[in-house]
Every structure is written in structure tokens, then in C-alpha cells.
Specification:
Blueprint (H helix, E strand, L loop, with lengths): L1 E6 L6 E6 L2 E7 L1 H4 L9 H11 L8 E4 L3 H15 L4 H15 L2 H9 L8 H4 E3 L2 H10 L6 E7 L6 E9 L2 E9 L4 H11 L8 H7 L8 H8 E3 L5 E3 L15 H7 L12 H29 L3 E5 L6 H10 L4 E4 L5 H16 L25 H10 L5 E2 L2 H13 L4 E4 L13 E5 L6 H9 L9 E5 L3 H4 L11 E4 L10 H4 L23 E7 L5 H14 L3 E6 L11 H10 L4 E4 L2 E4 L19
Helix pairs in contact: 3-4, 7-14, 8-12, 10-12, 12-13, 16-20
Length: 612
């Protein structure tokens, strides 16, 4: 049985393909169109999935969309009626789009798919899955658990913003929901907006900024903005928010509460903004942990799965794991809307079609390391790079690993394009920029000279799974970079009294451990454990770096500049390589050195993309 899942028309459009319950392919549209968070119908992602499966659309048994547009339209209409006459202007602006596209989305989807198969049986084979059920299915069905509580938290689906389901075998039953406008995701996004970052993309910045501040506004948030019950359920005080009726997230009353208007994107970040970030991060963590404790008490199930945009808050995830309310935790790596495409397909296969789950031995999940995107054979790589004007040498596997490890140990930044592209927002050693974590200048160098982004943003360590506990306070799998833990005390550097007294961004350049490039100002790190079973070549590179340096850790950041989607093809990688200050690039077995390239091909990537 072959099922195609699709998410589109909000943000992060994607497609995913199942064959007999096995995930064959999944990818976001942005990687092909090169438009960050592309929300258009995912034509290129669907083309890729079908090609990867060797299929035409006529071979597909069901096409499943990740939410139910009519119910979403109902929520929009009821919200405006509830708040009338406030918000008429945004209602007037939104309604034509909804009437033209969203309300009649079934017809829109049919017309889009006609280019692949005009005679496809849309009446019976086009299915729709509720938004939070898509998220829940994406979290539970690929997980290693036979039974789990499934907690989904995001901005909003149709009505639900937070939902609880119970997964057992091939069943998944929705149990509880919190409805719009009461939303943890929208609360966090409101502070993202208030601190001057883009909603739906800048939440990572807010999380990265939080450790530079003190949570001195947390009491204000608890007292005025959110009412949390003993079981973790919550309500927001809508007097402070405008997202129901207006064209912005917060309002003048919110500004008064926090003592200033929202920061503009080009304004300086102050200690106050850092303290606000620390405050909302602390409150978010408290609510997530309280929710989890309530669910463990109510259902008694030892495992929890997470999905939805809030599940990408890896700091909260790490604290939830350490809290111990649940014995084990599994998070869908594509936890946002892109993962809804996969979840919709899985829900159709197991729930609509009644098919059993494939039993998995051991602790590894069904996501295959999330390496579900395109790969390129060596001959194709060479042809593509040659056509792009690249100068390269072709090395055997051992020589490539040796040369790259030596370059990293010498302090060079390495573009690493190997195997299948990752599905989800994180680069996991398939489309990565790598560096030496021992360098005290690597974090700042990568941010300012390679990524062209704010200097405060942290980088993640990739560590050999077998060595993780010797370097970090984590001895469990974290293959998707979705858990934060501290560097172990033995690897930390003692701070001087002067260094301890520093505040805010002044802390940035103080080395805190043996691996300062991946140690945040609070000694934390967003950890990826690397497994030989899912990415043998990346595991081999880190192993060779360890043999040369004694350090089983690399800096790993996504292969892109700020505002650009992660690279997909060899050509994407070469363009980015020529547009920033990476010294080495390995694509398959091709090795490129910056000094060998034609200077005429150098690009101005610093200003090529909109700020993220």
C-alpha cells in the first residue's frame, strides 16, 4: 500500500511517501524552491517523493492532506464574530483569500494534482486528517514505543493548540484538547514578536537569547498573561494579545506591562530583551513539565512522544527528560508543520486503512535518522559540480575522511554534503557545516563570517553516541538535536571572578569548557548523538577527528547562510561555498578547496537573502 502525505498553504509545505508503512521519502518544498518556509503547494517535494519510490501518482492508494480547511475556516469566522467589531480590518483582508483558496481547498488540491494524474480517483482517494492528529501520528507511529502518551503543542491547528492522545500498537486515540486562542506556541511567538524577531522562524533566536538573561519578568507573565492549573492546563489573558483580531501579536497593554514598545528588527538587543527571553523560556518550561506530570499521573504510561512547533524547543525537552515524569521521551524531528505531511500519511495507513505497525527491535525508531531526502550518486555529483564551474579532486573514502578530519583539526570550516538530505529543520550530518569545537573563536567565526547572523546564536555539538556521557550530562540517544544538556563538570573551565561578574552578551567570548564553540553561556549544549547505524560516514569522520585530537565532538550547523534554506543539491552547496567563508567542501567523494576556485564565481551571499 502506497500513501502520499502533503502539508501546504500555511508554512513549511512538505510531502512524504509511505510504502506498506515504511517511510520511503520526505522533504520540505523550501529545499527545492530555495524559498525559506515555502508554503506553496509542494510540487517539487511530491515529484521527489514519487521519483524516490519509482512511482507515478496513479500508483498511489491514497493522498492525505494534513489538516481540515473547512474547520479552520469555521474557527476564523467564529473568532472574528466573537471579537466583533474589533479586528474588522484584518477580517476584511483575510476573507477574500479564505474564500478563494482555503474554503474550497479540496477543489484546489484536485486541480493541483491533475498535472500528475488527470484520471485519479479523487472522490475516494483524497483524504483529510485533522491537524493535531497528523502531528500526533508523526510522533507516535515512528517512535520506538508500543504504548505512549502523545503531547502535541503548537500555535494552532483547526481549533486545538495543545492536545493529548494515547498510542497503543496501531491505534491512536485523541483524549484532551486546549483550544484557540489559548496557546503555548502563540504565547512564545508573541514574545518572539515583542523582542523583534520574525514569528514562525525567530523562536529559535528567542530560545538562544534566553541564557544571556535573568528571568526577572517571569512573575509578571504568570500573574498577568497565563493562568496554569495544577494539571498543567492553562488559559491566556487575551487583554494583552492582538493575534485574534489584529495584524500583530501583542498590543499597547502588553507594551505597558513590560515597560516599552516591541523592539524593531534593526534595533539593538539590550539586557532587558535578554531578561524577557529568559522569562518566557522559564514559564514555557514550567508549563510543559506541569502538563507532563499531570499526564503521567492521569494515564500511568511511562513513555511520552512530542510533536508540534513547541516540541522544537530543545531546552524545554531536555528539562522534561531530566524531570523524570516520564521514563523515556521521543520527539518527532520534523515536529513542525512539515512533519504533518508524514503524520497524515501514517494516520491514513494505520487508522484509516487499519494496517499494523512494523515491529522494531531495539531502541532505534522508524525515521532512519531522518535522512529521507534526495541523495546523489558520485558520477552525478561530478557532472553537476563541473557544470557549475567547480574545481575539485576525487578521493577514495579513507583519503576523504583523513583529509577532512585534518582540515577540521587545523581550524578550517568544512561544508559536508553526504548521502540523503535531512527531513526537518536540523542538519544532522547530511547537509552540514562542521568545525572544531575546541576553538574559542569558532562560534563567533561561523556566525559572523559563514552564517552571517547574530553573534549570540549557539551552535550544536555532534558527538559519537558511545562517547556522549563522557562529555555531556546525557546518556541517552539524541539523534535529532532536540535535547539540551550541560557539559560535564570534568570538561568545564573554572571561571574567574571577573568573568563570573559579566552580564548579557559580554559573556559570549568567555571560553567555558574544553569545547567552547558548542558550550552556551549557561554550560548547556544542544546535542546530536551520532550513530554508525544511521550515518556511517559522518560517524567515521568524527571517529577520525577523535583519533587525531582526542575529541569525539564536532561543531555542526546547517549548511546555509541566514535566511536561506538548507542546501539540497551539489549546485546549492557550491553556490553557498562560494558565497561565504568556508575553506573546504566535501560533496560525496569530491573535495573542493576555496583557494582552487575561480574568483569570478565568488558570490555576495551576505546580502542575498532576507533576514530570518
Amino acid at each position: 500500500m502506497k500513501i502520499l502525505g502533503v502539508s501546504a498553504f500555511y508554512h513549511d509545505s512538505a510531502a512524504a511517501l509511505l510504502r506498506d508503512g515504511v517511510i520511503l521519502a520526505a522533504a520540505q518544498e523550501e529545499r527545492f524552491t530555495r524559498k525559506k518556509h515555502d508554503s506553496e503547494f509542494p510540487r517539487a517535494a511530491i515529484d521527489y517523493c514519487l521519483a524516490e519510490g519509482g512511482l507515478t501518482l496513479g500508483d498511489i492508494d491514497a493522498v492525505v492532506f494534513y489538516d481540515k480547511p473547512f474547520i479552520k475556516f469555521e474557527r476564523l469566522l467564529e473568532t472574528y464574530l466573537a471579537f466583533a467589531p474589533r479586528g474588522f480590518e484584518s477580517f476584511r483582508m483575510a476573507m477574500p483569500l479564505w474564500l478563494r483558496e482555503k474554503l474550497f481547498q479540496k477543489d484546489l488540491l484536485r486541480s493541483e494534482f491533475k498535472q500528475w494524474a488527470p484520471d485519479f480517483d479523487w472522490q475516494n482517494k483524497l483524504l483529510f486528517c485533522e491537524h493535531h492528529l497528523s502531528h500526533a501520528a508523526s510522533a507516535f507511529f515512528p517512535s520506538p514505543f508500543d504504548e505512549a502518551v502523545v503531547l502535541t503543542m503548537d500555535g494552532v491547528g483547526e481549533w486545538a493548540t495543545t492536545s493529548v492522545a494515547i498510542g497503543r500498537g496501531n491505534s491512536l486515540t485523541m483524549q484532551q484538547e486546549i483550544h484557540f486562542p489559548h496557546s503555548l506556541g502563540l504565547l512564545y511567538s508573541a514574545f518572539t514578536y515583542y523582542c523583534g524577531f520574525k514569528v514562525n522562524s525567530g523562536e529559535y533566536k528567542l530560545m538562544g537569547l534566553a541564557p544571556y538573561g535573568q528571568p526577572r519578568f517571569a512573575g509578571l507573565i504568570r500573574e498577568h498573561l497565563i493562568d496554569v492549573k495544577a494539571d498543567g492546563s492553562f488559559r491566556l489573558n487575551m487583554d494583552y494579545f492582538d493575534y485574534c483580531t489584529g495584524l500583530r501579536m501583542t498590543n499597547a497593554r502588553f507594551d505597558t506591562l513590560f515597560g516599552a514598545p516591541a523592539r524593531k528588527a534593526n534595533e539593538e538587543l539590550t539586557q532587558r530583551h535578554m531578561d524577557i527571553a529568559a522569562s518566557i523560556q522559564q514559564v514555557l518550561e514550567e508549563v510543559v513539565i506541569q502538563l507532563a506530570r499531570g499526564l503521567r499521573k492521569e494515564y500511568g504510561i511511562p513513555n511520552i512522544c512530542l510533536a508540534g512547533g513547541v516540541a522544537l524547543n530543545c531546552v524545554a525537552n531536555g528539562k522534561l527528560l531530566r524531570d523524570g515524569a516520564f521514563n523515556d521521551i521521543w520527539i518527532q524531528p520534523a515536529a513542525g508543520d512539515a512533519g504533518g505531511a508524514l503524520g497524515a500519511a501514517l494516520a491514513a495507513y494505520h487508522l484509516n486503512k487499519g494496517q499494523p505497525r512494523i515491529r522494531r527491535n531495539g531502541s532505534h525508531d522508524a525515521m532512519q535518522g531522518s535522512y529521507l531526502g534526495p541523495a546523489f550518486v558520485q558520477s552525478d555529483i561530478e557532472q553537476r559540480l563541473t557544470a557549475a564551474g567547480a574545481k575539485f579532486s576525487v578521493l577514495q573514502d579513507e583519503a576523504l575522511i583523513d583529509t577532512c578530519a585534518e582540515g577540521l583539526a587545523d581550524g578550517k570550516a568544512l561544508g559536508w554534503v553526504q548521502g540523503r538530505m535531512e527531513f526537518g529543520p536540523r542538519a544532522l550530518g547530511g547537509r552540514s557545516i562542521l568545525g572544531d569545537p575546541r576553538s574559542p573563536t569558532m562560534q563567533k567565526t561561523l556566525n559572523l563570517r559563514v552564517k552571517y547572523r547574530e553573534s549570540f546564536r549557539p551552535f550544536a555539538p555532534s558527538v559519537l553516541r558511545e562517547d556522549a556521557a563522557e562529555w555531556f550530562e546525557l546518556d541517552t540517544d539524541s539523534p535529532y538535536m532536540l535535547l539540551v544538556a550541560d557539559v560535564v563538570n570534568a570538561r568545564r573551565r573554572s571561571m574567574t571572578a571577573e568573568e563570573e561578574a559579566l552580564f548579557g552578551i559580554e559573556k559570549l567570548n568567555v571560553p567555558r569548557s574544553e569545547i567552547p564553540a558548542v558550550t552556551h553561556v549557561d554550560y548547556s549544549a544542544r546535542i546530536q548523538t551520532v550513530h554508525a547505524e544511521t550515518n556511517p560516514r559522518y560517524h567515521a569522520l568524527i571517529s577520525r577527528f577523535k583519533a587525531q585530537t582526542g575529541c569525539p565532538v564536532l561543531v555542526n550547523t546547517s549548511f546555509n547562510v541566514r535566511g536561506e534554506p538548507i542546501v539540497c543539491t551539489p549546485e546549492d552547496a557550491f553556490r553557498c561555498f562560494m558565497g561565504c567563508e568556508i575553506e573546504l567542501l566535501a560533496v560525496g567523494n569530491c573535495l573542493l578547496r576555496k583557494e582552487d576556485q575561480d574568483p569570478a564565481l565568488k558570490l555576495d551571499y551576505k546580502n542575498a537573502f532576507e533576514l530570518d
